[in-house]
Amino acid sequence: MRPACFDVWNFCFHSIAPRNLYVNRGIEKNFSSLPAFQLPVLFHPEQMMSNSPVIGINLPNTCVDPDSTRRFLGLFSEAGFNAAELCLDTWPLILDGEICTPWLEWLEKLLPQYPLRYSAHIGRGLNLRDMERREKHAQVLRSSIDICARLGMSPLVLHYEVQSRNQAVERYFLEAHREAAEYAQARGVLLVVENIEVELVDPVIDFIARIDHPNLRMAFDTGHAFLAARYFKFDFMDAFRNALPWLAHLHLSDNTGVFEELRITNRPAYDSLPMGYRIEFGRGDIHLPPYFGKIPYDELFSQLDSYEGMFVCEYYVERFLPFLAKVQTSVREGILKNRKLAKI
């Protein structure tokens, strides 16, 4: 249960706080045209009173039943996390492009019971390069944004995936994101585009720079970039530094840096590999907790003295459940320690 002071603070915040809030440096979110109940809960008291980083964690997408959802959100709060990232296809929130109101109302009652901020991840099926079903994909994206606005979840993570060789498709992909950024901005939801392991990081940065919209920024996935750097032979830290001007969200996911080539050559075979085998042999995007693999997190955190977005630990939570507090503490201490060292 959240403390009573949280309810008092939340009421006061929505009653008297300015409607112009800054989620990340240089990105203005104007909510003056929205009714109060739609305002995202962007800050919590402990974050308003200190410079402590906002450490989040992904809710397992197996938490479709109410008891599992409550259990994990409670565990996250007890372990000291400040935020949770929810994948929108965890529950049937969208049915054939339309919002499923009963599920939306259930989450609307549940989520405020925990002292957490919330970000969201788009459902796996969204593909804005699918020209044959472009209207359906656009509808699903609009519904996803509307759900985030209603539930106070921001940012919403979208996947870049892999560039096609069709210029018409890429032009549509770009314009669809520009339109979505406008739509989301009017509803107080920041959109962030995530790099994946089968594509270079630079095309994602270039894509965001070309759109150049204040409500479309980058979600840097450390695990994806680390694998891509090893496979495509580019420097991981250079890619990260190149992303910094556009960075608004971080996924902290660790691995060994060993790229599993089946991810490119035979996706069905890749998907059929048991995760236990892949973890045991350190192959591919195995979503270990930060500091459990080989990504140089201390060096990465030293570059983030002015970063104000979330640090979302994205890993297979169920496989490392006894170590929730350890993961949260390690990440928080790593950020604070290396920020201080960077200033010396």
Mean pLDDT: 88
C-alpha termini separation? 41 Å
Number of helices: 14
Q: What is the CATH superfamily classification?
A: Divalent-metal-dependent TIM barrel enzymes
Radius of gyration: 19 Å
- Relative helix content: 40-55%
CATH class: Alpha Beta
For the biggest sheet, the summary is: 8 strands, parallel, barrel
Number of domains: 1
CATH architecture: Alpha-Beta Barrel
Query: What's the arrangement of strands in the largest beta sheet?
Result: 3-4-7-8-9-10-11-12
As for the CATH topology, it is TIM Barrel
Question: Structural class from helices and strands?
Answer: alpha/beta
Q: Which series of helices and strands comes N to C?
A: HEEHEHEEEHEHEHEHEHHEHHHHEH
Low-confidence parts: 1-49
Overall geometry comes to globular
Strand content: 15-25%
Counted beta strands: 12
Descriptive labels:
12 strands, 14 helices, 8-stranded parallel β-barrel, 43% helix, alpha/beta
